Amino acid sequence: MIHRLLGVTGDTTAVVIGASIGGLLAARVLREHFGRVVVLDRDTLGAAPAHRRCVPQDHQLHVLLARGRTALEELFPGLSAQLRDAGAPMVDLHGQVHWYNDGYLMRRAPSDLVAAGVGRPLLEHTIRERVLALPGVRLVARTDVTGLVLSADGSAVTGVHLSTGGTLAADLVVDAGGRASRGPLWLSAAGFPVPAEERVQVDVTYVTRRYEYQPEHLDGMSGVLTNAVPGAPRSGIAATQEDGLVAVALNGMLGERPPTDDAGMAAFADSLAAPHLATIIRCAVPAGDPVTMRYPASVRRRYERLRRFPEGYLVVADALCSFNPIYGQGMTVAALEALLLRRLLNTSGGRTTGLARRFFRQAARIVDGPWSIAVGTDLRFAEVPGRRTLKVRFVNAFVHRLHRAATRDANLGAAFLRVLNLVAPPTSLLTPGTILRVVFGARGTISRPRTPAPVAAEPAVRA
Questions:
Q1: What Gene Ontology molecular function terms does this protein carry (predicted)?
Q2: What is the DSSP string of 383-433?
Q3: Are 366 and 375 within 8 A, CB to CB?
Q4: Residues of the chain with pLDDT > 90: what percent?
Q5: If I label 379, which of 164, 270, 349, 396 is the partner at 20 to 30 A Cα–Cα?
């Protein structure tokens, strides 16, 4: 039996389904209150950073927002320095990045919004090593969870069924199985209601390729970003990472599919507002092949609205809400949920009675902000189905004017980036002072949006 293999006897045990970032962060917090924490994952997990078969998105460019980095630092003191020592650059998101919002180039300024330029495999590996170094934490790979074990009266989850044929008892089971979580199916099979789902169909395809970083390709900066706009559902981002590389991601919404050949990628980049992307593609030396991934829809599961839910079970991270990856919110929200779980367990002295109800209610408030940013922005596109309230239409029009004014007013750029990085709530953009800056700034002489044009550059010699 797996109990003997793990040495799980006596005391309290928490089981985490999934060893991706959301599951690892939950395990980190749970170890503060449980004698043992067992993390189960169906993948093979190596001793060094590597791409994972069951995490296909880890080939793509990931962005750890400024609030996400500070949240991880709360959970793992010294993590930023550890990533920096591993070669990941720390980037001032306002002072070291070219931002082309709606075609308008934001005025740069130094800021305290610092993000880590790190690939997903290195970040996940570093966190996993920190978690597994905690006494009482065990990771079991190549093991899938096939269902929940229920108490005799069916009111509580008391463990999990394993693909190996055994069961594992637990005082708390945390489902961090991602957007493919089978939680709703398990709840239905146990006679519990399933959460309502909100879906926003965006049909995003993104292609990421890494290149050898040359500062001149980014005018000495560490990144560049340009967003999609109605009528042109294409976007792109480049970000420096560890190993002296820069990752370029080309994104298409609503069926737009970036190509993967050199000429096609360059032509796609030429259609974007930021000229640096095409320069990198044409001039930099590739460090690997382009990788494509498709993301059909943002999905939010409304667990906080359920009237009945079993004790001893919790759902976190992407299993709770999966965001359009273009906005880079997923890892940061997972970290904020882990901090919430820590607060709730600290407050209750580690007791889990009623934990799910409290967690889901407060996690919904964490999700509300980034969900409104992602969905509200996606609803600018007429092809995206959804209800466009007066508030959504007003905010989108206002933010467009803010982008115009931010070409000259660095304070407006700072306000926008604080919201984008989940440091400040979206409502902070609607303070009287910010509104006045936008109204009067947008009336001034403002640079027009950049009209994309082909970048004249000599291509790099490619092997």
A1: monooxygenase activity
A2: TS-S---HHHHHHHHHHHHHHHHTTT-HHHHHHHHHHHTTSS-GGGGGSHH
A3: no
A4: 86
A5: 270
Largest CA distance in the chain: 73
Residue with token string 């009482």: 136
User: Where do you find CATH 3.30.70 in the chain?
Assistant: 201-296
Q: What is the pLDDT of residue 266?
A: 98
Q: How far apart (Å, rounded) are the C-alpha atoms in residues 280 and 269? A: 10
The amino acid that residue 206 corresponds to is: Y
CB 434 within 8 A of CB 415: yes
Kindly provide the residue ranges of all beta strands, DSSP E only, lying in 195-244, ordered along the sequence.
Answer: 197-212, 223-226, 234-241
The residue type of 251 is N
Q: Which among 111, 74, 102 has a CA at the least distance from the CA of 399?
A: 102
- May I ask the CATH architecture of the domain 2-64+121-196+302-367? 3-Layer(bba) Sandwich (3.50)
Residue 9 has pLDDT above 70, yes or no: no
DSSP 450: P
Tens digits of residue pLDDT in 317-327: 999 999 999 89
CATH 3.50.50.60 boundaries in the chain: 2-64+121-196+302-367
Q: Are 339 and 76 in contact (CB under 8 A)?
A: no
Q: Is the pTM of this model over 0.70?
A: yes
- pLDDT tens per residue across span 331-341: 999 999 999 99
Contacts of 381 (CB under 8 A, 6+ apart): 228, 230, 233, 253, 254
Structure tokens at 462: 């490619």
pLDDT tens for residues 51-72? 777 676 777 788 889 999 999 9
Q: What is the CATH number of domain 201-296?
A: 3.30.70
